[in-house]
């Protein structure tokens, strides 16, 4: 009987050495259109483990021989972890061979999720933001913010100014300082600003990654030609922009789950601001060219993402196969 190789654990440090935002954007751009239909992903399982914590399971599997994997993301959410100076969310991704069922790898899915979320936003921006965009407004200074900034700059090298807003201005300043120290942003100026309306008005691209339940971005503040990227909300009670922003923009989503999970959209439907059939299209349709992205320099576009097991599986595929390639070269 053949002996299976033991599963590997891919740490945060190893993951950083295996992918970049540029390489993951390229991978998702090439694999999402042909493979997304072959991935089965039932509704996520969510279990309340205490009044302030939950446990989520997000399974998926592929029926394509080009993607011979089964995977699941295991996520814990402990809202009070900030008092312990710990992240509120921790996650592990487990990958199996879909032909034999053998476990292949476990990897840090907290970091993997940050990469894939940012790269999905960047892919949408490639289709929806103005090619000559010069100012990126980053709303929120949490763990996802630096990934979103790097991913957006990857697809829009025309951006020369990044302005960061956070409820706590010190956190915005801290993010700006860290990014400037890390480098890799030749010709880009970083600023922090405590006036939310002013930051939004400046943005050619406005990227939001917060847990807000109160609308932060007001549609009246969006300038002509702006692209609004909404990442933070994933329940009907959460929202990062108001109804006017949704009304003014041509709205796209990462996948169909956004129309039932994202507070900005659920609320807009309930209040008659837009209808579900007015959502223009999803990310795969944009990449394939089945839906037209930006049509003019002055139209406003909105992209709402809630995440998907399909993108998780494709991202884990890239990390694992990069790991195997590196091991084979040694």
Automatic annotation (TrEMBL):
<dbReference type="InterPro" id="IPR003462">
    <property type="entry name" value="ODC_Mu_crystall"/>
</dbReference>
<dbReference type="InterPro" id="IPR023401">
    <property type="entry name" value="ODC_N"/>
</dbReference>
<dbReference type="InterPro" id="IPR036291">
    <property type="entry name" value="NAD(P)-bd_dom_sf"/>
</dbReference>
<dbReference type="GO" id="GO:0005737">
    <property type="term" value="C:cytoplasm"/>
</dbReference>
<dbReference type="GO" id="GO:0016491">
    <property type="term" value="F:oxidoreductase activity"/>
</dbReference>
<dbReference type="Pfam" id="PF02423">
    <property type="entry name" value="OCD_Mu_crystall"/>
</dbReference>
<comment type="similarity">
    <text>Belongs to the ornithine cyclodeaminase/mu-crystallin family.</text>
</comment>
<dbReference type="GO" id="GO:0019752">
    <property type="term" value="P:carboxylic acid metabolic process"/>
</dbReference>
<protein>
    <submittedName>
        <fullName>Protein SAR DEFICIENT 4</fullName>
    </submittedName>
</protein>
């Amino acid at each position: 009987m053949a002996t299976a190789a033991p599963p590997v654990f891919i740490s945060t440090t190893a993951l950083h050495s295996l992918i970049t935002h540029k390489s993951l954007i390229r991978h998702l751009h090439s694999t999402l259109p042909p493979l997304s239909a072959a991935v089965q992903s039932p509704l996520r399982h969510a279990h309340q483990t205490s009044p302030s914590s939950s446990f989520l399971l997000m399974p998926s599997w592929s029926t394509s021989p080009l993607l011979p994997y089964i995977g699941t993301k295991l996520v814990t959410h402990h809202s009070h972890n900030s008092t312990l100076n710990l992240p509120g969310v921790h996650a592990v991704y487990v990958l199996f061979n879909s032909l034999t069922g053998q476990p292949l790898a476990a990897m840090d899915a907290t970091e993997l999720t940050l990469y894939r979320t940012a790269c999905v936003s960047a892919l949408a921006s490639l289709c929806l933001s103005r090619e000559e965009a010069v100012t990126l407004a980053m709303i929120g200074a949490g763990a996802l913010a630096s990934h979103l900034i790097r991913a957006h700059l990857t697809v829009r090298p025309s951006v020369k100014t990044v302005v960061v807003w956070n409820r706590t201005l010190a956190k915005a300043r801290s993010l700006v300082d860290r990014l400037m120290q890390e480098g890799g942003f030749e010709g880009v100026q970083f600023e922090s600003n405590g006036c939310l309306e002013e930051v939004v008005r400046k943005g050619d691209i406005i990227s939001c990654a917060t847990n807000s339940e109160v609308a932060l971005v007001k549609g009246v503040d969006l300038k002509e030609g702006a692209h609004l990227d909404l990442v933070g909300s994933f329940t009907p009670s959460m929202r990062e922009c108001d109804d006017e922003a949704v009304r003014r923009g041509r709205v796209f989503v990462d996948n169909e789950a956004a129309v039932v999970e994202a507070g900005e959209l659920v609320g807009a439907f309930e209040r008659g601001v837009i209808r579900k059939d007015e959502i223009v299209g999803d990310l795969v349709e944009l990449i394939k060219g089945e839906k037209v992205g930006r049509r003019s320099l002055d139209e406003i576009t909105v992209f709402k993402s809630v995440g998907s097991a399909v993108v998780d599986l494709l991202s884990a595929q890239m990390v694992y196969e990069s790991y195997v390639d590196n091991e084979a070269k040694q």
